[in-house]
Amino acid sequence: MAKSNKIKKSLIVSTIGLATFTALGCASQATQGKYVDGVHQVQAKGKKSQIVLEVTVEQGEIVDMKTKSHKETESLYLNAERLLPKIVKNNGHEGIDAVSGATYSSNGILKAVNDLPRSNGIQPKYVAVGAKDTLGDDDFKLKWSIQPKLGLLVGDYYYEEARFRQGHMGSMTIVTDSQDRNDVILAEFNESGRPNYYTRLYQDVPKRMSEYNFSMGKKKGTAWVQSALTMEKLMVEQNKLTFEPNPNHDPKLANKLKEPNRLKYLGIDIVAGASNSIQQSMIPLTAKIHHRIHTDGSSLKFYQLAEKVLDEKGQWTGITAMLRLVVDPGTKQIVKAHFDEIFADEKAQIQDASLKKFYRQSKYDSIHYSEPARIGFNVMVDALNVHLQSGGSLFDINDLPATGDTGNYAATGFTKRSSSWDLYLGQAEKLYHKMRQDGVIAQHKHPASK
To answer: 135, 168 in Cβ contact below 8 A?
Structure first.
């Protein structure tokens, strides 16, 4: 019996050794990668649905990925789907954070990738991840600039506006060089929320320089204005105002990030932030302007002055004052006016601590900014526009709100004089001098001195 047991034990050791040697021998002759080669379908739960991915593996590495199906919120999934090229480059999901605002969809994608069959046969447990960017009020990671170009800007003026998609109001301003109509020197898109917008706070509110961008950024990981700024830069740098429709556009593929025929316009790959606004409003409005430029031209002239507001020591306060005037040289009358004070892009650049929270916003567009003169800043500016359109003087503005300390608080309320009027008058003087030089405006009288 003892001899028999020794023989069995010897056979077992030999067999194990042979198996080990055979496995090692095979491994030395085969390419060992992270994953099993082939085309794999993997899936995992997102926020609302199963996310199904098709992943191609060659020589153990991920070489391609695409979404086969999902029923997530489209705008959120489009942001989450940006993880796909990162996963391919990283050859796996490890170390990749979720996309802010699309955390559940992101984790659905990452968890599905975790289920790819591995060459070593081990299937690690998936651990959910959060977004790297924490978008709190005091730690907002998204970046963009709303600062206007400083100095004087003069050219031919074009403007179009129209409602689109449920009633949002899109508006497009284009200014071209007066000597070369193909030279675009300003492109600016804005949009106001529809009057029946589901969030009452943003009904009829302009999006460009308001709190809307921060609200959207926290929810979706991208701000509306970022896409608008990208398109504006393209238009100015390339003097490009028209975009060819994609003949292969398939609306059903709108959520397929890697499929070129999901694009409505050739070369316009803006899928986040303002994709609908760009495709349904900005591009069509700009096409109308392009047609006008090359048929009738413009009969209106545009004058803009943007200056940093300095303190008594010559330091920037973190506010940029901007006055825009549109004038009809034929009648020599002002047909449109807009004044605004735009806060710096970063909190640290704003001197007044009480105003830091309004960074990347303007006094006119901001919902929460309170004018110390005790009347809405937008009310003041809208009144100025009406005053000038009706033939009023640039300088005699004493009939406008908050130009003095007036009113009885108990009976009608009262206003204090707004310091913004002094900024406005200083810029109006400079633009008026330039417009008079150009011979495009009639004489404007200053108020009689007392």
So the answer is: no
